[in-house]
Amino acid sequence: MSGPLPPPAVAPINCQPWCGVGDGHPDERTREDQWCFGVEHRVDLSAEATEPLSDGNTQQQYLNTYLLRQANDTAPRVFVGHGGRSGKVATLEEARRFALEILTRVDGFEV
């Protein structure tokens, strides 16, 4: 006797042009699981200590960012994180404002 059948997958979504998978995510079981993720970009943090990895190696700490969009979202978002473990999701406008604040600090050496 076999167990219950898994629920059917949901209909594929129209992936964003920048989606790393691009197949509509047809194997996901719920609409909430269908996400488009863009290419991750990292910046190593040279002033931070390296972190030990489970395999005995070390890794430089880093900031990371990428685009993402869940199936039912009306617009893409920007993820800004630290080391892939934690971070926040911002609208495109919020991310743009934050990027301009960083550039203002860097260009003007403001405190």
Task: Provide an overview of this structure.
- The chain has 111 residues and is an alpha+beta fold.
- It is 15% helix and 29% strand.
- The protein has one helix and seven strands; from the N terminus they run E-E-E-E-E-E-E-H.
- The strands form two sheets. Strands 1, 2, 5, 6 and 7 form a five-stranded antiparallel sheet that branches. Strands 3-4 form a two-stranded antiparallel ribbon.
- The N and C termini lie far apart (69 Å).
- The model has no long low-confidence stretch (mean pLDDT 91).
Key attributes of the depicted protein:
five-stranded antiparallel beta sheet, two-stranded antiparallel sheet, 7 strands, 111 residues, alpha+beta
Q: Please tell me what the overall shape is.
A: flat
What is the number of helices?
Answer: 1
DSSP E strands, number: 7
| Strand composition percent | 25-35%
Q: Which structural class fits the helix and strand makeup?
A: alpha+beta
The SSE order reads EEEEEEEH
Average of per-residue pLDDT values: 91
